[in-house]
Structure formats: C-alpha cells, structure tokens
Amino acid sequence: MTRGLLSLGVLLGGVLLSTSSLARDTTHMLSIEEAMSTPEARERLDPNIRFVFGDTSDAETVTEYGNFVTNKKTNALNKSDEEACRWVMLSALLSLQDRVKAEGGNAVINIESFYDRQPMASNTEYECHAGAIMAGVALRGDVVTLH
Prior knowledge:
Layout: H1 2-22, E1 26-31, H2 32-36, H3 39-44, E2 50-53, E3 61-75, H4 81-103, E4 107-113, E5 125-130, E6 134-146
Parallel strand pairs: 2-4
Antiparallel strand pairs: 1-5, 3-6, 4-6, 5-6
C-alpha cells in the first residue's frame, strides 16, 4: 500500500512539473532587422511594401486606412525560442502585408509590439513571448499610402 502511494506521489509530482514547464512564458526582445532579413522573410515580404517600426517615418502620408493589430502564434516544439520567434514575427508581418494589400496602401507605419495589449515601440526590437509549445508576437501599426 505504501509503495502504491509513493508511486502515485511520484507520478503526480511529475505531472505537476511537466504542467509548470508548459506554462513557461519567456519574454524576448529581438532584432527586427534579423527577423526581416531571414531567407524566408526576403522571399515572402513584398519589397514594394514598407514596414516602419517606431516613429521613424520620414515620408509624407497621402492616405490613412486605419490602425490594425495582428496577434500570431506558432508551434515552438523542437525550435529554439529565437527560431520560433523569428518564424512567428514573419507570420505577423505577412498578416500586416495582407492588410496593406486589402486596403490599397503601400506601407505600415508606427509599428509597435502589442503583446497582451501592452504597447512597446522600438525602431530596432520586437517583443516575442515563448513557452514550451508556443511562441507569440502581436504587432499594431497604421496602414497608409506614403508619397
């Protein structure tokens, strides 16, 4: 009987440990330039669409189409946090690119990280949250036509 309770205790302890490891939520601040210069990003991002992070646009806005949010998640299994974050960042950028095309613009400006609805503006870094099985990036930006 005691051996059975001990085995049950070890089993429950293992379940609790594995459950807590699944709840990991590590915040990473990563390079926008690195994410946008991967071979996949160079292949899939339209060079005719500008992505302007932070408040650095020097071009004149001709038309404003609105502020849009994208919140993407990706499978992080068998990937480093950085690899999963770069992949999900590309997914978020592609979502914004699709919005630009749908609205008829040519840029997204004032792009900021918007994870859990908390704005974080940077010209050089984006925020990514990585866990044991998922990684996520949320971006918010203004779709416009630049002159």
